[in-house]
Amino acid sequence: MSNQPIPLSVLDLIPIGEGFSVAQALENSTRLAQAAEKAGFKRYWVAEHHNLKDIASAATSVILSHIGAKTESIRLGSGGIMLPNHAPLVIAEQFATLESLYPGRIDLGLGRAPGTDMETARALRRDPSAKGTEFPEMLEELLYFFSQESAHKRIKAVPGAGMKVPTWLLGSSTFSAQLAARKGLPMAFAAHFAPDAMNAAIEYYRANYQPSEQFPEPYVIVCVNAVGADTQEEAEYLATTELQKFLSLNQGVEQYLPKPVENMNALWSPSDAVRVKHQLRESIWGTEEVIRERLTSLVERTGADEVMVNSWIHDPEKRIHSHNVIAKAWF
């Protein structure tokens, strides 16, 4: 590893842990953002989700505005806004407003999934069959509302027109990699829940990247789950919350983010264990030494320009400590 390692950033879904309220979850994440800023992380991104019992990040731009007021320098963004849920004009207005409040600190990461089930997607009042609701078309419309050209049209984003809010495409397959390469946009890959297409997506993106004025070079963030602790045993114990989270997702069971357990074998079948461990094979759990070794391997394998870490840790103090361990391991 070089003397100047690549940046680390934070993804947060604002988890609602067992025994915590939504208000406490928001406060816990605000404190994490402050700790991440102090520890040297570059970005703090919040991911839009809806109708999930253990995730409080539905009103993503509202949360970012609050965290912006409680921090000073860390970049803030969406990881991501699920564009099919929204009119592009509204998202341009929201993120240009954030950029106006916190100049030079805002990123707009976009995803094409609804971030929920289809019934809830319909409740969000987005008709997937309506004209102009295909993701590439919606992206084109959103980028138009950020353009200088749009400032002279009758319908424009105020604020938004002429504001170069950095726009990222998020993905867990090669689809977003292809679109990001074609549009000359940076890409963040979701290896924290869908690592299967990671290498193919990154390779395609770099090989086919079309430079843009704002982003002349390709740029890749790889996101992984991570747990740092003072001992390996503690890290693996804390990580059982993550294992339970993905086990419940695979089984369609709703629950608050659970406390860690001593023995996962009491909760899952052998086939469940194989499935969850395969899905989470890029997760990094351990001491500073293990974190450093695994992060270095990830960067060498992927050529990532930046790594983003997500954590499923029940105890908010241990979650903050985990990020401090990761920062000390890397910087």
UniProtKB/TrEMBL annotation:
InterPro entries, per the entry: Bact_Lucif_Oxidored, CmoO-like, Luciferase-like_dom, Luciferase-like_sf
Residue ranges of every copy of the Luciferase-like domain listed in the record: 13-305
Pfam families (UniProt xref): Bac_luciferase (PF00296)
Keywords: Monooxygenase, Oxidoreductase
Single Gene Ontology MF annotation: monooxygenase activity
Gene3D superfamilies cross-referenced by the UniProt entry: Luciferase-like domain
Family: To bacterial alkanal monooxygenase alpha and beta chains.
Name of this chain's protein: Luciferase-like monooxygenase
Species name: Marinomonas aquimarina
